[in-house]
Amino acid sequence: MESAVPASVKDRPHLLMCGPYPAADTQALEATYTVHKLWEHVGAALPPEQAAQVRAIATRGDLGASATLIGQLPALEIISCYGVGTDAIDLAAARARGIQVTNTPDVLTGDVADLAVGLALAAMRRIPAGDAYVRSGAWSKQAMGLVTRLHGKRVGVVGLGRIGQAVARRLAGFDVELAYFARAARPDCAHRYFSSVTELARWSDLLVVTLAGGPSTKDIINAEVLNALGEQGWLVNVSRGSTVDEPALLLALEQGRIAGAGLDVFWNEPQIDPRFLALHNVVLQPHHASATAETRQAMGQLVRDNLSAHFAGQALLTPVD
Ligand code: 8YV
Asked: Distance (Å, rounded) from C-alpha 116 to C-alpha 226?
C-alpha cells in the first residue's frame, strides 16, 4: 500500500528521519512526506519551527527516539521503527502523549536466526581464521590447528521469542540438544526449560542470546553466567549489546574462561571497545543480523506501510503495545 497520503507537496505530512536508510527507502519516503534529516542539523537538533510541523518519526532500532526528542515535537503522532527492537524508543514518553509506535517484526526473523547459526559455526570452526590462514600462505608450511564441532553439542537459547524459536528450528538440523531460558516455560515447546540463565549456561556448550534489549534484560549474561558456561563454552549474541555485561565478557575472553564468542552487537556501537579487536577467540559483525538486501527492503516497506496506514486512518500493521 504505497502512499495513501496526499501527493501535493504543500499537504505532505512532515516526517523526521533519525538516521539514514538505504537510498531507495529514503527516496520512497521523500516521495510522500516532507522529510527532515536529524543528522544533517547542527547538534542533531531540528530548528523549532521545523520541529513544530513534524507528525511522524522514521527511526532505526539502534537509534530509537528519546523522551527529549519526543518532547521537542509537539505535533508528533507516530514513530515508525526500522527494526524489531524498540528498547531505544522511550515508549513511556510516547504512550503518555498517545503517540503510536510501530516496528518491523517477522520480516527479519529468518535473517537474524541465520546469522546466529553462522556466528556459531564461524566462531567454533574458526572459519575467518581458516580463511586468513589460506590467504597468508601459512597452509603450505603447516596444517591449521584443530577446531570445535557444533553438531552434537548442547545449545541453550536465551529468550524463546520469534527469533529464539527460529534459531532453535535451524539448530535442530545440526543434531544438537536444545534447551532454553525464558520468563516462563512454554507449553508449546518440547525443549528443556531452565528458569535460571546461570543453570542453562552450566548445561550448555553454546549459549545463543536472542532476548529483547531493555532494563529487564540488561547484563543478564554476567560474570556468573560466563563462569558457568566455562572454558569449553561458546557465546553468540544477536540481541542487543546491553544483554551482556561487556567488561565481564572481555575479561572472560581474554583469560580463556570461556572458549570464544560470535558477536553482532556491542555496548558502544559502532565505536566498540578496542579490546575486542585484539582477541583471537571472537568473530565480530557490525550489527548486521538483519542486513540482507531482501530483508532490509521488506523492513523499509513495512515502515512505510505503517506510516501510510496511520495517515489513512487505518489500523497499523505492526503496532508495538
Ligand atoms: C537493525 C535491529 O540493525 O531489528 C532490530 O532491532 O537492531 C536491526 O534489525 C537496525 O534497526 C537497523 O539500524
From this structure: 18
Residues 165 and 19 occupy one common structural domain = no
Is residue 138 located within the same domain as residue 172?
Answer: yes
Structural domain boundaries, residue 273: 109-284
Q: Tell me, what's the pLDDT at 43?
A: 83
Half-sphere exposure of 109 (CA within 13 A, CB side): 14
Q: pTM surpassing 0.85?
A: yes
- Residue 321 within any structural domain of the chain: no
Q: How many CA atoms lie within 13 A of 281 on its CB side?
A: 20
Residue 94 and residue 22 share a domain:
yes
| Ligand 1 atom with minimal separation from the 85 CA | 6
**What separation in Å is there between the alpha carbon of 104 and the centre of ligand 1?**
9
Which CATH number fits the domain that encloses residue 84?
3.40.50.720
The number of folded domains in the chain is 2
Burial annotation 218-252 (CB, 10 A radius, 16+ → b, else e)? eebbeeebbbbbeeebbbbbbbbbbbbbbebbbeb
- Mean pLDDT of each 10-residue bin along the chain, 321 residues long: 61 96 98 97 90 98 96 98 98 98 98 98 98 98 98 98 98 97 95 98 98 97 98 98 98 98 98 98 98 98 98 98 84
Find out whether the beta carbon of 84 lies less than 6 Å from any atom of ligand 1. yes
